[in-house]
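thought: fold this chain, then report.
action: predict
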Amino acid sequence: MSPQRPRSIEVDFFRGIVLIVIVLDHIPGSVLQHLMLHAYALCDSAEVFVCLGGYASAAAYGAVLSKRGERAAHNRFYKRCWEIYRAYLLTALLTLLSGAILQRLHLNQPMVSLTGWPMFSSAPVKEALEIATLRNQPYLSSVLPMYVLFAITVPFVVPFARKSPLSALSLSIAVWLAAVPLARLFAIDDVSDWAFNPFAWQLMFVIGILCRERPVPEHVQQSRAGGCLTRLAIAAVLAFAVVKLFILTQPLPGHLKQNLSIERVINFLAIAWLAARLVSNGFIANLARKAPAVVKVGQTGLVCFVGGTLISLIVDTATPHGLSGLSHGLAALAGDCVAIIAVLLLARFWNEWKGPTQPRAAVSGADCR
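observation:
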């Protein structure tokens, strides 16, 4: 059993940033979303979110295992599976209710269609059953069903990754390579129509688990090979940015994200390596200590994700859409600021309501990959 390590303040900081970015990314008129990762890379916040989810899951499993034993660790993640499923149902309900209210008030009609309310209102019983069985996933709730599946596998994947990390990674890559035919094989459950193919995206989750269980040693990062990897990562990130900014003129097909295409994986790994180097030299920890409100968002992940869906819908509806030029830009920027503040306040109020939390210690750079 690997020694228990303190929870990473850097990971909580990254998770907080990603949760805020997810809210901004789902406000169609957002100004700040043009500064986000997807504007300069072929991957986006989804890869970061899922990878950090794997890291946090491995950390949580290890903490329960060391204190209460294997059975308690298994039960914790079966309970977590149920928690995520309930969060999915709540997110779907909030999405549909928002669509119903918007339609009733004749507001933000494009968002009404996105929420799935028109289809639900035409056949509520059928659609409710489809949502409950994960066949139909309204709007922003679509990322949660695969987390339900991932939570079930944690008690098996984490011990496997600890015992044989290379085998765990190899098996994960094999499943990723076979993701499309596997999705078609399970078409009876409409897996092939999920916004995120879980057979593909499990690779990001497993990478996150391996980053926690088998981090890159500090001496490797500081070695000549580590330096070469850093320079290669910088070149890759710049190359992908050039492609995204100057070569691609149309949005990429949705199936590339759905099935986690290889270019998205490579782009993410290059960014992740550079982020790991910033963690290693203490830069991220120092930044996190100066932004405790963002760290708190990361510690309140599921609540902020569910609440963030409602925040993005409200802000998008409240932002005037009839403006143009500078007025439109200022109104959209004000909406972005309101959304960010709302997410920060949600995390703060939730933590105060739940009571004081245990302090999160910063860990060494080698523990944060």
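thought: worth noting. The longest helix spans residues 70-104.
final: tokens above.
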